[in-house]
Amino acid sequence: MTHHRQAIHRLDYAPPAFLVDRVDLTFDLGETFTRVTSRLVVERNKQSSDTTAPLTLDGEELELESIKLDGAPLPRDRYQITDSALIIPDIEDEAILEIVTRINPAANTCLMGLYQSGGNLFTQCEAEGFRRITYYIDRPDVMARFTTTIIADKTKYPVLLSNGNRISEGTMDRNRHWVKWVDPFRKPSYLFALVAGKLVSLCGQHTTGRGKTVNIEIFVEAGNLDKCHHALAAAQKAMRWDEERFGLEYDLDTYMIVATSDFNMGAMENKGLNIFNTKFVLAKPDTATDADFEGIDAVVAHEYFHNWTGNRVTCRDWFQLSLKEGLTVYRDQEFSSDIGSRAVQRIQNVRTLREMQFAEDAGPQAHPVRPDTYIEINNFYTMTVYEKGAEVVRMIATLLGREGFRKGMELYFNRHDGKAVTCDDFVAAMADANGIDLEQFKRWYSQAGTPKLNIDGAYDEQAKTFTLTVRQSCPATPGQENKQPLHIPLAVGLIDRRGQDLPLQLAGECAPTGTTRVLELRRPVETFTFTQVPCLPVPSLLRDFSAPVRLDYAWSDEDLVFLMAHDSDAFARWEAANAYATRLLIGQYHVAAEGATVAAPVDFLEALRSLLVQEDLDPALVALMLELPSERMLLEEIPDVDPARLHQVCLAIKQQIARELRPEILRTYLALNNGEPYRYTSTDVARRSLKNVCLAYLAELDEAMVSEALLNQYSRADNMTDRLAALKALANRNGEEQLADFATRWKDDALVMDKWFALQAQSRRPGALSRVQKLMEHPAFSIRNPNKVRALIGTFCHQNLAHFHAEDGYGYAFAADRIIELDRLNPQIAARLAACFNRWKQVEPKRRAMMREELERIAGEENLSSDTYEIVTKALQA
Ligand code: TRP
Ligand code: ZN
């Protein structure tokens, strides 16, 4: 790996000096020795201002065997080799290069380029992995036609896959065979893929609206075919949905998905050959939870949708990453909303955004949706680029309406199909297709930080008007001291005393228009006066979370209880519950700091009780409203926080809820725990979610009846959702026996063992850290496997706040040791883990000093990767 630490700047973008028209690759595969022959047809780029630049090809960790230019060996003095490039100074405007390099997949531990996993071979090229396979102009604005010939041992690698269509194959001497693939679409190198190995496949079909039949093939290791049906159905649903919602059809004859258990992220959208983390493919009811099934739907759809938003239209440079990621996340969220519950989907997305993206935006790694500078691009596959990017696209859709948004998408593809473009091009297509001005809106792409809305409401009894005064502001972020006002859609409603939505009519309008209104904020302060308001209303603000902002409005506790019960917007009902609980927990944190006893007010408990006794509510929504805000989210709201105290307060309130609502919680649990066989339907998923939230509350009670219920649910469950919910509670009690039973039962299923590791890493029982350390020696654990690292180490450092932030600092030292250890093996994974130190300045002084020391210890390591270097130095600078 390289250790370059030069910052790259967005404004330094220049078109490439050369383009590649064709690439013909031949791989002679071997696990420790693969020979790659690349024939490149290159030409000088007429768009480039530098007409004499040398041809510079990126390359890392490659061994050059030979190089020919226009058919003749290139003399050694005609080219230079550095540890990151091959440079040919004197070259014609058109040239054909033949380059032979060697690579060693078995020695590749960072999982970028060509690597080995379970005896099979896989590639991962985004963002800059292709340069670890062969010398190339490895940037997304160089789009070429690729062919790939793969030669390999027939027994070890019976299946040989690459992008596009398989056009020929044959056998060779020494038990070898070969396959040739041709990709009819031009693509950047980051979308290249190759897979070779012993794989079996599940096949299905999809017939498009125009009557074309697409083959869908899912490749997995033998023994896993029975876990592919959900992923196949997801691909079929996604194909249908994209045709219906956006008129977009698949463009090749075959869509392939391959699953590997060694993968740095969720999945990768390589043209025609998506490669997935097994976590987002393999599932059956006894091994996967409801959340896993939902994750598979979302990720399969996400990668499939990239075929248009990412592959057909791609990014000009990596600063534009949100062009494809924000848009594709928006699309997969919409898909999930349509196949499931829109309200539940929205609440879950907002929870993640608040817990993770708001934290990122408030900390040392804050950056705009379209960053201006980076050291290591791998560090910019962030919550901001993905999730805030999706919110930005969602706001455009809110401003334009569904039809307007679709027209914008059509113009976007008409203008840019087959091209590498920018976020500005996307916004321009949206604006032009609808004849509206989005210039101010574009600041959402360039300005970091979470904006804040301070809203006042005033009722004029005489005039029967209700006036909202909205002030927007945005905190400073690293490198951005002063912020400019944003164009913000603010969806509002007004609710009368009886809980009815009032028709909304702004001053100057002659008739009301609906009961939810999207107000458009542009200036630092805006006022909106609603007329014909018969009585003092309760305002419902930021309905459906119409913008990724923090909101400050002085609702009373009674207002929040009222909104919880009456808001016609399901998201806003949940939000009221969430706001009430957040306010309460922060208040009680301060009560505890003064040494007083922590307690929830009766009104809060009664509001929760009424959710449990009403029979007509959606159980999934009730479950979400009963769940308290996470400690991770609350930590963001309390300066100089003591995480241990925060944990104690959350626990005390949870236990109080369990005690005081015991009859209703128990009744609900028993009613839902009716022994019906498992089905994966939205009704059943919703019921299980409420049942298991109830179980988690019951588990806070020290009663024999509860122990029995937990043991019963654990041993009798016919599905992983219920079994794991019980085991999770048992892991916080004395569930040694069940944990051992679980491990014996599932020792051969890597994904189930990930759950087992995660659950123990999350346990709040004393001694969590030493148990995590011991689990690192478990035969199912491997520091080289990203899923295992995330399950055990990542969960402990990011989710188990009480133990990670232990007063003795051992949690911090453990994290730093692991980051240093991982940095030598897999810098991407090390850098992700290093984010656990990001919020060190939010924590009280004693712990803050210890966290800083560990950051300095990491920064002082020799030969740190650019990935970890960037994260820790930014954390220390800010
Ligand atoms: N583009 C992929 C997606 O969001 C994610 C991705 C980017 C990735 N870089 C990666 C996956 C490196 C694995 C490894 O769909
Ligand atoms: Zn993506």
TrEMBL record:
<dbReference type="GO" id="GO:0016285">
    <property type="term" value="F:alanyl aminopeptidase activity"/>
</dbReference>
<keyword id="KW-0479">Metal-binding</keyword>
<dbReference type="InterPro" id="IPR037144">
    <property type="entry name" value="Peptidase_M1_pepN_C_sf"/>
</dbReference>
<dbReference type="InterPro" id="IPR024601">
    <property type="entry name" value="Peptidase_M1_pepN_C"/>
</dbReference>
<dbReference type="InterPro" id="IPR001930">
    <property type="entry name" value="Peptidase_M1"/>
</dbReference>
<keyword id="KW-0378">Hydrolase</keyword>
<keyword id="KW-0031">Aminopeptidase</keyword>
<comment type="function">
    <text>Aminopeptidase N is involved in the degradation of intracellular peptides generated by protein breakdown during normal growth as well as in response to nutrient starvation.</text>
</comment>
<feature type="domain" description="Peptidase M1 alanyl aminopeptidase Ig-like fold">
    <location>
        <begin position="449"/>
        <end position="553"/>
    </location>
</feature>
<feature type="domain" description="Peptidase M1 membrane alanine aminopeptidase">
    <location>
        <begin position="231"/>
        <end position="444"/>
    </location>
</feature>
<keyword id="KW-0645">Protease</keyword>
<feature type="domain" description="Aminopeptidase N-like N-terminal">
    <location>
        <begin position="50"/>
        <end position="191"/>
    </location>
</feature>
<dbReference type="GO" id="GO:0006508">
    <property type="term" value="P:proteolysis"/>
</dbReference>
<protein>
    <recommendedName>
        <fullName>Aminopeptidase N</fullName>
        <ecNumber>3.4.11.2</ecNumber>
    </recommendedName>
</protein>
<dbReference type="InterPro" id="IPR045357">
    <property type="entry name" value="Aminopeptidase_N-like_N"/>
</dbReference>
<dbReference type="Pfam" id="PF17432">
    <property type="entry name" value="DUF3458_C"/>
</dbReference>
<dbReference type="Pfam" id="PF17900">
    <property type="entry name" value="Peptidase_M1_N"/>
</dbReference>
<comment type="similarity">
    <text>Belongs to the peptidase M1 family.</text>
</comment>
<dbReference type="InterPro" id="IPR027268">
    <property type="entry name" value="Peptidase_M4/M1_CTD_sf"/>
</dbReference>
<dbReference type="InterPro" id="IPR042097">
    <property type="entry name" value="Aminopeptidase_N-like_N_sf"/>
</dbReference>
<dbReference type="InterPro" id="IPR014782">
    <property type="entry name" value="Peptidase_M1_dom"/>
</dbReference>
<dbReference type="InterPro" id="IPR012779">
    <property type="entry name" value="Peptidase_M1_pepN"/>
</dbReference>
<keyword id="KW-0482">Metalloprotease</keyword>
<keyword id="KW-0862">Zinc</keyword>
<dbReference type="Pfam" id="PF11940">
    <property type="entry name" value="DUF3458"/>
</dbReference>
<feature type="domain" description="Peptidase M1 alanyl aminopeptidase C-terminal">
    <location>
        <begin position="557"/>
        <end position="877"/>
    </location>
</feature>
<dbReference type="GO" id="GO:0008237">
    <property type="term" value="F:metallopeptidase activity"/>
</dbReference>
<dbReference type="InterPro" id="IPR038438">
    <property type="entry name" value="PepN_Ig-like_sf"/>
</dbReference>
<dbReference type="Pfam" id="PF01433">
    <property type="entry name" value="Peptidase_M1"/>
</dbReference>
<dbReference type="InterPro" id="IPR035414">
    <property type="entry name" value="Peptidase_M1_pepN_Ig-like"/>
</dbReference>
<dbReference type="GO" id="GO:0008270">
    <property type="term" value="F:zinc ion binding"/>
</dbReference>
